[in-house]
Design brief:
Blueprint lengths: L17 H11 L4 H11 L10 H14 L3 E5 L5 H9 L5 E6 L2 H14 L5 E5 L2 H11 L3 E6 L6 H11 E10 L15 H14 L4 E6 L5 E6 L2
Parallel strand pairs: 1-2, 1-4, 2-3, 4-5
Antiparallel strand pairs: 5-7, 6-7
Helix pairs in contact: 3-4, 6-7
Length: 227
């Protein structure tokens, strides 16, 4: 592994101002009407900030088209936007297994899965995701792609379980790895930022994988399990 020195000040990733975000949505976002409706529904909820951004969603759908996974595992369903955008982009025989413990949120998800006509491609398991992962490991299940977007305190455990469930060459996507920019505040007073920072450092040093950062939304890391 090549250890990177401090970044050159002249080389920077651009941030998304409101004007740039509006521009990006106008010229790069192509969102199916059912996805737009679900996003607007979720936006009005008290926890609406938990939803992935539409550009993140489009990127996930694009990944499904490029990678062509047959089996996808999602940790954290919420109201179903990410599972829906993936299901819409999967091959005809592709499926999404999604895990959550909130029946009210997932009731909304089921409604929009049905409206989109992909309810047969998505299976929901209600319960603790770590227990679900343990059961899947015991069954010998494997997946081509895994999305982790759930409680941050368990990210390390979700990640380790996911590596066991992931096929060689498969990809894990993890949301919120930049945690609203709080990840670089010093000293780190935000406990969640501390947890995510430690997690990011551990993944960076993990020789079992290759990593990439997509600076969309709250930061999306892509992790490929080496062959």
């Amino acid at each position: 592994m090549i250890k990177q020195e401090a970044p050159l000040s002249a080389i920077k990733d651009i941030g998304f101002s409101q004007a740039l975000q509006d521009y990006s949505h106008r010229l790069f976002l192509k969102e199916a009407p059912v996805l737009y409706e679900l996003r607007q529904h979720t936006k009005k909820m008290p926890e609406g900030h938990m939803q992935i951004t539409p550009l993140q969603g489009q990127f996930l759908g694009f990944l499904m088209q490029i990678l062509g996974p047959k089996k996808v595992l999602e940790i954290g369903t919420y109201t179903g936007y990410s599972s829906l955008v993936m299901a819409l982009s999967l091959p005809k025989d592709g499926t999404v297994l999604t895990c959550d413990r909130n029946p009210e949120w997932t009731k909304i998800a089921k409604k929009y899965w049905a409206l989109a006509g992909v309810e047969t491609k998505i299976k929901l398991i209600l319960g603790q995701a770590l227990e679900t992962q343990a059961s899947l490991i015991k069954q010998g299940q494997t997946f081509d792609f895994i999305l982790i977007d759930a409680d941050k305190k368990n990210y390390r455990a979700y990640y380790e379980n996911s590596l066991q469930l992931l096929k060689k060459g498969g990809v894990i996507a993890i949301d919120n790895v930049l945690w609203g920019g709080n990840i670089v505040q010093q000293p780190l007073q935000d406990l969640t930022a501390q947890l995510i920072d430690t997690f990011n450092q551990n993944v960076y040093c993990d020789e079992r994988v290759e990593i990439c950062l997509i600076p969309l939304g709250d930061g999306l890391s892509l992790i490929r399990k080496k062959d």
